[in-house]
Amino acid sequence: MKPKLAKRQASASHSHVNPATRHQDSVVRIIAFDSTNRQDRSLTGIPDITATRWMCFGIAMLLSCVALALPALTILIRPSPDLDPIALIVSTLIAAMLLVPAFMFARAGLLAGAWITITPESVEYGSGNGIVEKQGTKIEWARIASGQMARYDVRLILKGPVREPRIAFGYKMPDGTQNEYSLPMSLRERGMQCLWFVNADALRIALLQNMAARSNLCFDPDIFVEAGIDPETWHLMPKPRKIEWAIAIASMAAVLIFGSFISATTSVVLVVGGVFAILGLGLLATFSFRKRAYPGFDHVICFCENR
Q1: DSSP string spanning 34-92?
Q2: For 197, which DSSP code?
Q3: Does the keyword section mention Transmembrane helix (predicted)?
Q4: How crowded is the C-beta side of 42, counted as CA atoms within 13 Å?
Q5: Which residues make beta-bridge pairs with 303?
């Protein structure tokens, strides 16, 4: 099915602006949304506690073994009788530094758990088992605000040192003010306490369907690409990360292979130009993959009620 596209002039004369007419000189993809297909029951996430604990305890054990082995190896190797005290002190300090993250991973394994509940009214999520620790974040769908001047009301952002993808949107507070909220695409805030939810795909579909039920919102198409969900059918589609990681690894491998041919007499211009050419080809391959794999996902996406 080809996506429906609309190109209309923006109108600022009304207090409530239709999303399809809000974007001047831009193409809007309008998708008919049947609210009867939306889940009317609550959906609860199933955290993979076993895999999370295996990871946390495994890393903690590995770090602990390395920390305990360092002083012992220093004594056994004995680089020099004069340097033995210094080497032993340094190895002991390194071992102590390794025990700190080992303790953090072990603690995260003991406290492993996350919860999320999606209903037609709201989404609630947080860390812990969800029974004893019921404090978390609650987002009501009715409070998600439409930004009259922004290109997207609901958009994808990358946040934090690991560039975690998050869904960002305006949110009306009880006092009438509007703040920006965001929730993680992974559906949990702390990866050390929960690697993933077993039913993560079903949760993301329910999450985006409840947002789409607010027919006055404009969506960033990258949200659906990142989630791997087709907004027309609400079926799963290939996620881009695996292919993009493969292209990135191939680009780095090509740079290393190119570097193995560099000698002391090689021109600096040739080296820099070669590296930039390889990385440029990698970016071009990523762009071409996105264009071919996700046609129609470069326009603003709006949903309208199918009556």
Answers
A1: -GGGS--S-EE--B-HHHHHHHHHHHHHHHHHHHHHHHHHHHHH---TTTHHHHHHHHH
A2: B
A3: yes
A4: 12
A5: 31
Q: Please state, in angstroms and rounded to a whole number, the distance separating the CA atoms of residues 45 and 235.
A: 19
DSSP state of 2: P
pTM of the complete model:
0.72
**Beta carbons of 287 and 196 less than 8 angstroms apart:** no
Query: Bridge partners of 183?
Result: 167
CA 265/CA 262 separation, integer angstroms: 8
Q: What is the DSSP letter of 146?
A: P
pLDDT tens for residues 18-68? Answer: 555 555 545 777 777 776 656 566 888 888 888 888 998 999 999 898 888
For residue 236, the SS3 value is strand
79-124: pLDDT as tens digits: 555 556 777 777 788 888 888 989 998 988 888 888 888 988 889 8
Residue ranges of alpha helices (H) inside the chain are 49-77, 84-110, 200-212, 221-227, 241-260, 268-293
Q: Closest Cα to residue 144, out of 164, 165, 160, 123?
A: 123
Helix, strand, coil percentages in the chain from 3-state DSSP, rounded to 5: 45, 20, 35
Q: 């992974």: which residue's tokens?
A: 186
Strands 137-140 and 114-118: unpaired
